Amino acid sequence: MSNEKLWSIRSGELQYILKVADDGSLVNLHFGGRVEPVESISLGGHFPFEPSLHLLREEYSTFGGLRFMEPCLKVELPGGVRDCVLKYESFKIEDNNVLSITLKDISYELFADLHYRAYPAYNIITKWAEIRNAGPQPVILEEALSGAVSLPRGGLWRLTFLSGHWAGETRIVQEVLKAGKKVLESRRGTTSHQLNPVAFFDAGDAGEEEGEVWGCLLGWSGNWKCVSEYVGHDQLRVAMGVNDFDFSWHLESGESFKTPKMILAYSASGFGGLSRSLHRFERGVVLPRNNATKPRPVIYNTWETLYFNVNEENLKQLADIAAEIGVEVFVVDDGWFKGRNDDRAGLGDWVPDPHKFPRGLGPVIEHVKSKGMIFGIWVEPEMVNPNSDLYRRHPDWVYHFPGRPRSEMRNQLILNLSRSDVREYVFNWLDRLLAENDIGFVKWDMNRSFSEPGWPDAPRGREREIWVRHVQAVYEILDEIRRRHPNVIFEGCSGGGGRVDLGAMERFDQFWTSDNTDALDRLYIQEGYTMAYCPKTMGAWVTGVPNFLTNRTLSLEFRFHSAMMGALGISVNLLELSSIEKEEAKMHIEFYKKIRHIVLDGDLYRLKSPRSGGLAAFQYVTPDKTESLIFVFTLQQGFGRREPLLRVRGLDPSLIYEVDSSGQSFSGLYLMNYGIDHGIRGDYKSKVIYLKARR
């Protein structure tokens, strides 16, 4: 609903209410569950030595006036003026789904268009801002966040977020927020392994399937930040967007700056309910439409078998076995291009190495296709090795400061995609590679963080725009490549899960979740990943033992079951598998193909966290509630302890479910209220239980 001064945005069980205060400020009255009548909501009283409460709940706060919280917008106006005060100007509603509210500075022709889109089927609202300079002189943006939200007043809030490092991404952390600011951020130029742009809030009493939970996410693959702070006495405010660290944006007259989208979610059914809303939204809205409804294929990746030692002969040998066990996509990882025998050379020279592939990639591609598989390839378009023909020709094409050292990570530097000639080069070679070869899968990697973020040839005043321009360039290249090659599947990777976010998800069909392929560690990583991101995008591999990272040896069954909970991949050395192991792998892959629709497009219930010890269990249920899978993993057992029955979730209480074609049948009501005995004992054992409703 809306009138001239009050707007209520309803999106399923989520409601977001905005109002224009008497002084013209736009205020966030409510973010949470449904409330009626909205006209009765008030801001409350006033506290001494604090600005009025409508400033504390301002929807898009600025650096200006009596505002002391994290600003959404900080600018330098003509004449060195750093004060900005935005007041309501107008609004419009498009397609009954998008509300746009325009604010304007009180003395300069600077506008902020705030956009809101509701997705009622998913309990999701997205919002973003567009800053327009309609004045005659330039304006400098020093901070331009996507937006802020005000959570319901009262008590201390608990923050749940995803933290980690390389090979240990997306692990769940919970903290009670007290005085001061809590800042989650990346300054690395990418989303980062260390923190992910996801923040969930509850009053400290929400569980996996009960209690109220609020969610804020950001669709952005570069520097970002999320600031949570109490303003006034007990008002928690959360601001999110592009990180203002080392950032500025030059707005000439007539130019505008569009922020990334901030995604708002709410659930009265705990963290699990919030996750399922996000998963449905991602499958139904965010993922690239051409592949969103398709099953994710079983892939084989050569990395943990061959590393850089790829050639025509050994790839054909691997492809033969991969096809035999049921693989659908055969991916050649790093090492295929000119001069690439280790990580010290070759990046930037994207042609097949003439010594490894004297006849080019064609013979390998044709062999893979003859076995009924799709051919895939690894690329790292944003990078260059100093030891490459490209760098020797164009040493100025990387981010750098003249006369200063250029810090290398993994023996590589980052190409300056802010430059149009560099963007053109990257696009052209990738487009040519796909046009000249029958490639159906691309793994796009990005294996380092930014340093020396200099752009010596930048137009005056635009040097610090590289943090945003680089991400925009990656998006533009991917968007156009996908348009030209619509049947190619794209997997996003950044040393594992270093670039996983909802902005990247609009371009990548799936992600390489982590370079850590240990099946036990993956239970923790994948649990955290699914807090925000759907299993359909979660790449998971079965690799060799002992694991290269942990030196742990787990059964082939455990490794497959762990990897089956997402988009299944294989990178175990097929040449070393026994005939018995090959048959077991083939059996697991055949089973996965039969049930992957449940995993990839079903609802996920995290029944028991591996963090609780003893046992981990995850359940997937089809939308029509007729099929379900329960993945059970024992951890370390001791003292004769027996795990309790698993009470499952999400079934139809009135239906009768057959268990594993065993002849045993139970009602959905029984299974949810009493439970099921998984029947496994011992350390590091696993089992998949299949439930199917009788027709």
What tags apply to this protein structure?
TIM Barrel; eight-stranded parallel barrel; 3 domains; ten-stranded antiparallel sheet; 35 strands; Beta-galactosidase, Chain A, domain 5; Immunoglobulin-like; alpha+beta; 695 residues
Description:
The strands form 6 sheets. Strands 5, 6, 7, 8, 10, 11, 13, 14, 18 and 19 form a 10-stranded antiparallel sheet that branches. Strands 20-21-22-25-26-27-28-29 form an 8-stranded parallel beta barrel, surrounded by 5 helices. Strand 30 and strand 31 form a beta hairpin. By secondary structure, the protein is α+β, with helices and mostly antiparallel strands. Helices cover 21% and strands 29% of the residues. The protein is built from 13 helices and 35 strands. The two termini are 43 Å apart. 51% of the residues are buried. The chain folds into 3 domains: 6-286, Beta-galactosidase, Chain A, domain 5 (Distorted Sandwich), CATH 2.70.98.60; 299-601, Alpha-Beta Barrel (TIM Barrel); 607-693, Golgi alpha-mannosidase II (Immunoglobulin-like, Sandwich). The mean pLDDT is 96.
Question: Any idea what the CATH architecture of the largest domain is?
Answer: Alpha-Beta Barrel
Structural class: alpha+beta
Query: What is the level 1 CATH name of the largest domain?
Result: Alpha Beta
Radius of gyration over alpha carbons?
26 Å
